[in-house]
Fold each of these.
Amino acid sequence: MKVHWQGERLSVVEGDITRFEGDAIVNAANRSLLGGGGVDGAIHRAAGPELLEACRALRARVWPDGLPVGQVAVTPGFRLAANHVIHTVGPVYARTEDRSAPLADCYRRALDVAAEQEFARLAFPAISTGVYGYPAEAAARIVSGVVRERLPDIPGLEVTLVFFSAKDAETFLTAATL
Ligand code: AR6
């Protein structure tokens, strides 16, 4: 993974999140939790069919109606280099409604899980900025705000923000306040 920016416990990198080695990666899933395209598809392919089974079990036991937007659910990482997957569902972007709060919730709740489980290394993709259409600059301001607010209270945690292209990483860095 190519590093574009490195802070004390936060880094901005370009690469494939399925290759991240650490305690957990976050998945930009959909409410069904049963897989999809984009980063979700890549994570399921890399983790193997056990991940889908674990997601089906979560649906049956905890989230029969699907995972609500802004919520998180944890599974093992199976064949991934990361030990866990924190699945979350970002909001679909809408020009007519401010959905920054549910997008912030995805990041905040994943950070809460990392704090509770005493994770040391956690990676996020750019939730909602692909199929769900959230403008990358607006997402960058939200994400950097949440991380700046929360990371000081989770002293054992290193966070990596993973972008799929150099352009996405640089767009983030231009719009974010780090
Ligand atoms: N590693 C890192 N980032 C990636 C990877 C990867 N392997 N693959 C894609 N991205 P998206 P969303 C980037 O569409 O907008 C799925 O079908 C991608 O370039 O994956 O939250 C789900 O099942 C983009 O910047 O997620 C849902 O139905 C970012 O990941 C829906 O898409 C997010 O793009 C969720 O849409």
Amino acid sequence: MSTELLAAAHAPSAYDFALQNFELAAEALELTECTRSLIKYPERVLTVNIPFRLDNGDIRRYEGYRVQHNTSRGPAKGGIRYHPGVTLDEVKALAMWMTWKCAVVDVPFGGGKGGVIVDPKQLTLPELERMTRRYTAGIAPLLGPQRDIPAPDVYTNAQTMGWIMDTYSMMSAGGYPIPSVVTGKPLSIGGSLGRAEATGRGAFHTLVSACEQLHISMKGSKSVVQGFGNAGSVVANLLDGHQSLVIAVNDSRGGVYNPAGLDIPKLMLHKERTGTVVGFAHAEAITNADLLTLECDILIPAALENAITGENAHRVRARIVAEAANGPLTPEADAILEGNGVFIIPDILCNAGGVTVSYFEWCQNEQHYYWDLHEVENRLERVMNKAFKEVLDIHSDRKVGMRLAANMLGISRVATATTARGLYP
Ligand code: NAD
């Protein structure tokens, strides 16, 4: 085995980091070993084989997962990720973070996550649909509006959720629709207004609160966004609309930089047309590594885990790091940034707008009564502001970093619910 492969094999995973952060919060909360053992580990882990037919008639197979971390506060909730780098450990970490996140914003859900090891860009749309339907059939025994409710994540979208909803409805109800089994669906089959923008919009609300707290004027501030997808493009657009200069953004293929500020609406059109931000006019090219170390007020990692590590954290020159992505900082990076006085808005707070509006969507489906956009956005803002204040209060009262404060809030709520339910049998 090469040294590089050996290092990768021994590198700590996102799940190791999630467990490490859990223990820090459990210590600070003085949780007993018994409570820890009840809430630390996933309740259920399912691995499925996904054979499906390619357009040319050949059969391809992938491996997929669904993990339910904790359901003491409500049904498992969490996205489904399609990515060649998916691992079971990653899905377990993401499921655990969903548990704490739902508790931080106090929505009555537990945590779950799903993933398939696939590069969806290599499949045609019909192939992607067949693969999605077969994966859904595999994890269907776990799903249900009162059991486990998936949503979109990296490289899945409203269309993917439509296929999942249809497959589940065909399998369990003869095709009669069961919209509340997934969120992030198309509006025409029970999706919620405002869901597609919810993660970015929620992150934006936390940024407004953080700027107020730190006396930073958003108008005229400089921001940088890593990952111009669902979460990243929305928060970039809102910052641009509030006169923050978004000086650089990127995606998996590369980045664009303009010190005078990028025209975000035009960049969104460019990405829609070409599939990437690369090649946008009125901007210079910037590498994905250099983008993260640009001098700015606000840095928003909105792509994947471990974007900022012990290697590059020393070079980050931002005042606020807002984690629109899940797990973009390793614990080592966390400590370095905190030591340098960077204000971190942790993922389980920063990107909780997505699951909050997913909850609103589920409520609307269960009530068969739909809200207007104004109502969705107002309720989202209230939830995000309340959660930010609650985390900030712990941060100030207990003199701990924002990540530990958020973990303490989420984990204590889950511990309380678990204790209230008692131990079966
Ligand atoms: P997405 O697929 O819409 O976008 C991801 C973007 O990241 C794409 O533009 C991709 O090209 C880019 N990217 C991938 N690797 C990159 C790299 N190395 N450098 C720069 N860019 C890179 O996914 P999304 O839904 O926006 O999810 C992004 C992050 O936000 C994930 O961590 C996800 O778990 C988290 N999140 C998403 C939601 C949601 O509602 N979609 C909710 C909560 C958290």
Amino acid sequence: MSETDFEKPDPHDFLGIDSLLSDEEALLRDTVRSYVENEINPHVAEWWDEGRIPHQDLAAAFGELGMLGMHLEGYGCAGTSATQYGLACLELEAGDSGIRSFVSVQGSLVMFPIWKFGSEEQKQSWLPRMAKGEVIGCFGLTEADSGSDPSSMRTSARKDGADWLINGSKMWITNGSIADVAIVWARTDQGVRGFIVPTDTPGFSAPEIKMKASLRASVTSELILDDVRVPEELVLPGVASMRGPLSCLNEARFGIAFGAMGAARSCYETALSYSKEREQFGTPIGAFQLTQRKLVEMMVAVQRGTLLAIHLGRRKDEGDLSPEQVSFGKFDNVRNALEVARTARSVLGANGITLEYPVFRHMANLETVYTYEGTHEIHTLVMGQAITGHQAFN
Ligand code: TGC
Ligand code: FAD
């Protein structure tokens, strides 16, 4: 084959990454992509502007599509591969990080701990309804004074007869005010335990956090637990240490490594299309060398990050993905996505600061993604410890 026989690379898939996906993976990716294009993209800027999401409609639709707890086996869950779950996160986050959050909290942070650490009765009782979107969950780990260091949590639970009494508060909890059930992590005399707390339990309240400038198409709340009484049947029996909540984070961080590349892809594609139409000095801005450099940097970052995510997906599917490798994915893909979003914003000039285009919304959202699920600095230190053997958190 001579050089002239090669086809020109596709600007939307420069390295031909699609060829790495099986037919099944591509089909799932296409299904989620078309759902996002038809049902999310036309409305999400308005939801973001108004600081709300139609959570019941979304839960039902995602349930129907089999996307809630999709990588879990049994109990009404779809049982897809990890790579398929990641690809779904990527497509959802191409719509909005808040929409990906909605799905990843439900699947990775609420259903996963019940699936992994719950009793058979708990699994039978909660997972099928959560998979259908009939029950929405939230995950309460962070507290006002315990963010990066959740093991310093103050929320506590103590035995009172046959029940447990939980007291304390959680902060920055996605879906808190709209949840039917909260997984609350609390210190006990047996170690850190996970409690399945129905949100209509007396003493439980979840005021919404307002005035957010990021992740606005997502509900974020405080959880207040004032003598909340739960029976022993609602304690997760399978874990009594920080390993419980931290294991859930591995699942959600994995989804973010993919998801961030969805937001980045949306920014790159918006900037590419804009640069072909917008003219200044009588020339499309995409014809200027400085703009081409920006477009190429963005394209390379998106392709590289997508390859990384798929590599992590393959390792996870083989059962060989360590938490430190998940940190690599979250660390590198989120920082690169944020850089892509900022660059795309500059390509759009003044239009880049409006919600008419998705770029500023993604850029603002990615500031949250940089911080939640372990800040960029925490993932730096996780990998730092892995390569030096020295723990540098304190
Ligand atoms: P350490 O003393 O090292 O370990 C305590 C126990 O946990 C185990 N462990 C893990 N297990 C599974 N996966 C991991 N990644 C694990 N890391 C540690 C460890 O083996 C030990 O088990 P055991 O059985 O011996 O007791 O832990 P540490 O308390 O010193 O923590 C280390 C550190 C700083 C890495 C950890 O605290 C951390 O990751 N901090 C960041 C906190 C964070 O990411 N919070 C996220 C909150 S949830 C959220 O943001 C949701 S956003 C949702 C959305 O909208 O998408
Ligand atoms: P801090 O821990 O106070 O960190 C502040 C700064 O100090 C950061 O730059 C951090 O990297 C740095 N820092 C801290 N420790 C070190 C160190 N040892 N070395 C170097 N630098 C350090 N939590 C949940 O439990 N459930 C949820 O559903 C959830 N959803 C969220 C949704 C949103 C929109 C947001 C913004 C947050 C959410 N979180 C949730 C909380 C999130 O996980 C925390 O914000 C995050 O873990 C960081 O904690 P912090 O905000 O208290 O920051």
